[in-house]
Description:
Layout: E1 6-10, H1 15-18, H2 20-31, E2 34-42, H3 45-54, H4 60-83, E3 89-97, H5 100-110, E4 115-119, H6 132-140, E5 145-148, E6 159-163, H7 168-171, H8 174-184, E7 187-195, H9 212-230, E8 236-243, E9 246-253, E10 256-269, H10 272-283, E11 286-290, H11 304-312, E12 317-320, H12 324-327
Parallel strand pairs: 1-2, 1-4, 2-3, 4-5, 6-7, 6-11, 7-10, 11-12
Antiparallel strand pairs: 5-12, 8-9, 9-10
Helix pairs in contact: 5-6, 10-11
Amino acid sequence: MIELKKILVPTDFSKGAEVVYPVAQNIANTFGGKIDFLHVIPTIKYFNESLKRLGIPLDMNKDVYPRIIDESEAKIKKAMDQYLKEINKGTHVVKIGRRPSETIIEYAAENGYDLIIMGARGKDESRFIRGVTTERVIRKSRVPVFSVDSRFDKDKIKNVVLTTDTSELSLAAFPLAVSIADTFGADLTLFHVIELYGTVSEDIPRNPEKGEAVSIYEGIIDRINSYLTKRKFDNLHVLRTGVMFEDEVVISDGDSTRKVQLFTKIEKGISAHYEIESYASEHADLVIMATHGHSGFAHLILGSTAEKVAQYVKKPVITIRPEENDFSGE
Length: 330
C-alpha cells in the first residue's frame, strides 16, 4: 500500500487554503508523516520596473521582498502551530516565483513529496470549480494532488470513488485509492462507464452466459490483481467474496490484516465524464483519478475525461499521474 509520509501544503493564507490544514493532519495521523507548508510570492517584475520609471528609490529585492517573506513566515508558523500536531510538523518555506503553480510543482518534485494537498480555490478565481493555480498543479504535477474545498468534512468520507477505463494506466491509481479509503475508514467503489461509441473495456472478453457488465467487472478485478502483482504491491490483494460487484481489498500489515470494502459500479452513457460527474454528485464523497487513461495521450498531461471531471465535479478530487514504467505497459 502507498504510504504518504511526506506531505506538502501550499498556502496563500486564504480561507480556501485553510480548509486543507486539518485534512493534512488527518492523513498524517494515519501514516505518521511530516507536513511541510509552502507559500509562493509571485514575482512582481512589472511593479519593480514601474517604480524605477517613477524614480522611486525602492529596490524590490532589498526593500520589499524581505518584509513580505518575514510576514509570510510568521503566518505559516502561526497556521502550523494552530492546526498541526508537534510530531507532524515539518518545515516551512517561502519562495518567490513567477507563477505559483510552477513553483509548487517544481518544489514538490525536487523534494520527493508523496502528496500535495491544496484548496480547490485559493485567492484566484475562475469559472471552474477549481481555481487557476490548483487546476495548473493538477494538470502538470507528477506528485499526486488532493484538492479540497470548504465543503470537505473528513468525518463524512464514507465512499471513495476510483474511476477506471480498465486500462493499466487508470488502475495505477488503485493503491493510492486503497490508502485513502483506509485512512478515512471508507468504502472504495470502482466506477467504469461503457461509452456509447466505444471504450477500452471492449478488449475484455465477453461471456454470453454472464453478460456484458459481469464480464467487464470480472475483467477489472483480474486486471487489478495482475497489476498489483506486477508492480510488487505484495501487501494488497482483491479478495472475491462470491457476491457480484461486492468484494474486499485485503491489506497485509506484518502479521495482521485489515480490509476495505470494494464495490464495482458499471454504467452505460454517451460520455464518461458526464456519467462520472452525475454518479459522483449523488454517491461519492471523494473522487480519485489517474491523469492518464485510455485517452491519456489526447492531451499531453491530463486525459480529456480526467480534465473535465477535475474542472467541474463538486467533490474533493485526488489526481495521480502514473509512473513512467506504467506507460510501458500500455
